[in-house]
Amino acid sequence: MQQLLNNLGMMIRPHFYEIAMMIVATLLVIYGNEINKLVKRQVAHWHFIFRTLVFVVVCAFGYGWLLVWFTPVLAGWLHQIPLQFVAVSAIGIVFLLGILAERKKQL
User: Fold this and answer.
1) What is the mean pLDDT of the chain?
2) Would you state the torsion angle of the CA atoms of residues 17, 2, 7, 21, taken in this order, to the nearest 10 degrees?
3) Distance between CA atoms of 52 and 57, rounded to whole angstroms?
4) What's the average model confidence in pLDDT over 58-85?
5) For the chain, what are the domain ranges?
6) What is the dihedral of CA 79, 93, 97, 26, to 10 degrees?
7) Which domain of life does the protein's organism represent (predicted)?
8) End-to-end CA distance of the chain, in Å?
């Protein structure tokens, strides 16, 4: 069993960056609506043009920057997982994201 887990870990390890990006993007999808609502409450009384600019900055640049900045950080954290736990951790993270999405009515 240990050898199987190590082999799976070796197959998954080169894809940590993509897995980290998937995690960050999924979290942004799940919680992005709440971030947008928070920003909307803050700028609701502003002029239409400024509200639009804030929306573009938050969605395009804010979410994009968060994805670009946090993905390598998360990939570094994933690299710290011992090899025999990589496959189990990856599957567990995907299931956790699914549970979060289900609770937020995203599925």
Assistant:
1) 92
2) -10
3) 9
4) 93
5) 2-103
6) 20
7) Bacteria
8) 34
- Within 10 Å of residue 35's Cβ, how many Cβ atoms? 15
Are 10 and 79 within 8 A, CB to CB?
Answer: no
State the sign of the Cα–Cα–Cα–Cα dihedral 83, 89, 94, 100.
negative
Locus of tokens 């700028």: 43
> CA nearest 19: which of 65, 81, 61, 64?
81
* CA 21/CA 105 separation, integer angstroms: 22
Cβ within 8 Å of residue 58, ≥6 positions away: 35, 36, 39
- Token output for 33: 């609506």
Helix (H, G, I), strand (E, B) or coil at 81: coil
Tokens 């197959």 belong to 11
Residue 56 CB coordination number (10 Å): 11
| pLDDT per position as a tens digit, 18-66 | 999 999 999 999 998 899 899 999 998 999 999 999 989 998 899 999 9
